[in-house]
Design brief:
By secondary structure, the protein is of the alpha/beta class. Helices cover 35% and strands 15% of the residues. 41% of the residues are buried. α1 (10-19) crosses α12 (301-321) and α4 (102-117) crosses α6 (154-165). It has helices spanning 10-19, 58-66, 84-89, 102-117, 120-128, 154-165, 179-183, 191-197, 217-222, 240-249, 279-284, 301-321, and strands spanning 2-5, 26-29, 47-50, 71-74, 93-95, 146-150, 169-173, 187-188, 200-203, 227-231, 252-257, 290-292. The radius of gyration is 21 Å and the shape is globular. It has 2 domains: 2-100 and 300-328, Rossmann fold; 102-292, NAD(P)-binding Rossmann-like Domain (Rossmann fold), CATH 3.40.50. The structure holds nicotinamide-adenine-dinucleotide. Nicotinamide-adenine-dinucleotide is lined by residues 77-78, 99, 105, 150-156, 173-176, 178, 204-207, 210-211, 232-234, 258-259, 295, 297-298.
């Protein structure tokens, strides 16, 4: 197949070219994003390969269909930016990489927690300036705390396993129980019980209409005072304005996020020379107890290799068999 890539960075090109056999597929890389205007540049290809912030709405999908695209290959797990109904209507298959390295995302979640709890970002900067004061660096033991995991799929269950290692009590909430989490000793409870009992709440469910802003003012109200909130899943699971109010009141003691609801205007680009236009994000940056990373939880060499391999195999499966185990369809 000929595949046109959008939102490509040098690392995507490197890992895909390394994994792509010479007679496997022809890969064309574009750095710009996929949207209704750029979609026509996929003409001549059979498939497009897109990432988390590409715009795969009805307008884009219509253009893709008009220029002969048959497959949308997402090189990520999430597919909330794809209009699945439009893809079905225009006869395009959508495939994704459901699991590439759950360890990468789970470990980054713990990384955010450890950095936040012990204020490692502050001490790193202080020590470099010869300031060895411990003022403002007091943390807490993670051992013995109650952790609430929302979403216990591939990544969530790995987070359960890591928190077990810390000696935490783990509570879970999911619309579907995962026997692996129960085997690990976690206990499924209602969302209300999880929010009211957890010292640390970590989000690992996908972004759907039903999960949009699931952490809003009402949910925050139910949480323990001083709760630590972690989100390495999708930004819009959290109502950022409500979280800012929670941080101002002290209800939220720490916030660690790798994703942000308006991240498509910010992340993956060097904007260090520009004036920040997003006032909500700018406000988040002012808190000493907020740690933000720019959607890098997936970003390990192991994950990049697996993403490239699975994406290429998905394309081969569709080409040879007309179907693929990693196809995403409109929920029935
Ligand atoms: P998964 O599909 O294996 O698991 C998702 C779990 O969420 C499932 O168990 C599902 O039943 C549950 N769920 C669905 N609706 C729910 C609801 N309303 N309330 C509670 N739980 C619900 O997905 P995964 O591989 O574990 O990934 C989880 C999410 O992590 C992805 O959807 C993606 O958005 C995000 N992600 C982020 C990064 C990153 O770099 N930050 C990388 C990969 C994935």
């Amino acid at each position: 197949m000929q595949v046109t890539f959008f939102s490509t960075k040098s690392y995507d090109e490197r890992y895909f070219l390394e994994e792509c056999g010479e007679d496997m597929h022809t890969l064309i890389f574009h750095e710009f994003r996929l949207n209704p205007d750029s979609a026509k540049l996929a003409a001549g290809s059979d498939a497009v390969c897109a990432f988390v912030n590409d715009q795969l709405d009805r307008a884009t999908i219509q253009v893709l269909s008009e220029v002969g695209i048959r497959v949308i290959a997402m090189r990520c797990a999430g597919f909330n930016n794809v209009d699945l109904e439009a893809a079905e209507a225009f006869g395009l298959k959508v495939v994704r990489v459901p699991a590439y390295s759950p360890h990468a995302v789970a470990e980054h979640t713990l990384g955010l927690l450890l950095a936040l709890n012990r204020r490692l970002y502050r001490s790193y900067n202080r020590v470099r300036e010869g300031n060895f004061s411990l003022q403002g660096l007091v943390g807490f033991d993670i051992h013995g705390l109650t952790v609430g995991i929302i979403g216990t799929g591939t990544i969530g269950v790995e987070v359960v396993r890591l928190f077990n290692g810390f000696g935490c009590k783990v509570l879970c909430y999911d619309v579907q129980q995962n026997p692996r989490a129960v085997e690990l000793g976690a206990q499924y409870v209602t969302l209300e019980a999880l929010l009211s009992q957890a010292d640390i709440v970590s989000l690992h469910c996908p972004l759907f209409q039903s999960t949009y802003h699931m952490i809003d003012a009402a949910a925050i109200e139910q949480m323990k005072h001083g709760v630590t909130l972690l989100n390495t899943s999708r930004g819009a699971l959290i109502d950022t304005s409500a979280v800012i109010e929670g941080l101002k009141s002290g209800k939220i003691g720490n916030l660690g996020i790798d994703v942000y609801e308006e991240e498509d205007n910010l992340f993956f680009e060097d904007q260090s020379g520009d004036v920040m236009q997003d006032d909500v994000f700018a406000r988040l940056l002012t808190f000493p107890n907020v740690m933000i990373t720019g959607h890098q939880a997936f970003f390990t060499s192991n994950a990049l290799i697996q993403i490239a391999r699975t994406t290429l195999q998905n394309l081969t499966d569709v080409e040879q068999d007309g179907c693929c185990v990693n196809e995403v369809k409109v929920p029935q």
